[in-house]
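Local shape tokens

___
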Amino acid sequence: MRAAVPDQRSAAPATPAPPPGGAVRLPTWMFPLVTVVSLLLGATSIVRGTRAVVSIADSDLTNFFLKSADYILRGDPWHMYAVRALGGYPNYNPPLTMFLLAPLLGLARALGFTANYGEQITFVTLPFIVLVPLMGYLGLRVMRALYPNAPETLRLLLYAFITLSPLAWQSYSIWYHVEQPLMLCLLLAAVLALQARREGLAGLLAGLAFLSRTTVLIPLIALGIVLLMTRAWRPLLKFGGVSALVAAVGFAPFVAFDAVDVKYTFLSWRGGAPIGSDSIWTIFAYTGTSSHLRELINAGAKRLDMYAVILIVAVAAFFAVRRLRLTLYARDLWALLAIAMLATPMLSKQVWPYYYLEPLVFIVVWELSTLQDRVAGVWRWPVLSIAFTLVAATLSQYVWEQSVGRFDALVVGVTQTALMALFAFGVWARIQARKPSAAGEVDAATYERGGMQPMTPPGMAVAGAVGYSAAPPSQMGKQGGPMAPMAPMSQPQPPVQRPPRQPGPAANLGPGQGAGQFPSAPNGPNGPNGLNGPAPLWPMDADAAPRSATPASPPRPAPGSAQSPAQGPAQSPDWWNIPHPVAPPAPGSAAGPNGSPNGTANGGAGDPWREWPRQR
């Protein structure tokens, strides 16, 4: 006999399933194309920006960085901080960038690219343009960690926001602060490693970031406060110890060989620098000699800006942990770092256009990576990223210009500070707009390993974090409290019996309806599940019958029964085990025990639409 062969004549060729959620698939060449365009923009900004460099004082690269790099080429690197510009202005930048620039400067001289400042700047700066695509790539890695299922269009938007932004490339033109993208790359990698529990690597990267640019100290202070308040002692000691050790080793030779210049550059000069015409401190600025009191106010204001920045960041970190339950491993930790970055242009006494790149990167990375975690409305759109790009690109045209008078300086300074404060409040408001299902961010096992409680405001459920609750410890395990008492292990609970499905009219619904569509709100448009409330936690089944807007009330239990109001409502099942709702029994039909229509005790498998108002 011939062996039976399955009949495959009617088998259709396999068709790949469409991407979930109707996501758009991008061509594979989109990211390389954006990268190439980004590098072309960077090269153009560098070459054309050199047209504005006429004297050595027209660029910070020629006025400070290359002078210090020349000390390295002469074999005397430990005295590079003896460099001074007009007015005793020192090279107020850590040494890592100068050591990277020195070999490029030596190669430019060897190849003859020293005919003018433009040639020298172009040759030395062009290799650093790869830092901007690298910064965009690290932003994608952060999104991958915070939002693993992010659609490709959103990933491309994040990458383009960083690599094609005018705020990214203005750091290279005119002032040529190539150390800023380097610092941002190191800081992004450090925070990413810290949230991955690789504290040693994170400390190394953070220490190198500090050796690149001193403004990284502000977000590191915010991180330190979060670690302290959440009592994450092991990450604090390991991360803080390694980063401090790297910074100390980097600065130790300079302090040993030239302590006077190092002290003047990083400690003394900052307090004596004049107040610029583009900050809130312009209110207290005074350059005359007729009022002794105003001179004292001006001298005090010049020394307060850095302390004000640190105070604002410390207060923001404190309230983020105490009121928003922020932890080291939360998605919104990146929002706190964005606020810390905003504090520098908001309260510094001298603001330069390239300062705006630092908050932009963290706002874009955090906002685009958490769009799915916000409640419906304005926070589901990248409003902060777009608005900050437009506002900062406009301010960049004016904040560094000299004022035409005191009134003009006051207007520009107050406006610039107020706008930065407005964005900081916008970030804070968006943190509070989390969806209830997104408040947990990390599963229960992660919090247990870290020795922390979930970042969950009181009364907010944590999806996937079974066994944790935001209620006070005194309410844990009480009848009617957030968590019901657990049954003994020797008495397993019987599975909830799901009633048989009944075919309903949902099978005849049109496209886009039926399975996966949310039913109407049980409590009206303003109820907890209504139009103005959070989305329901479970979708409507494909074969569920449509429900009326106001379902009939269940029969009132008799006094003293198991469902008597005196004993409180019964505990609802977990949302993933909620059974299929069934219609109430017809008049005269037999009902289950305890008044339950489907025969389950205590109404455990009753109609959730009816039980919802009482359970809430």
Remarks:
- The chain has a mean pLDDT of 76.
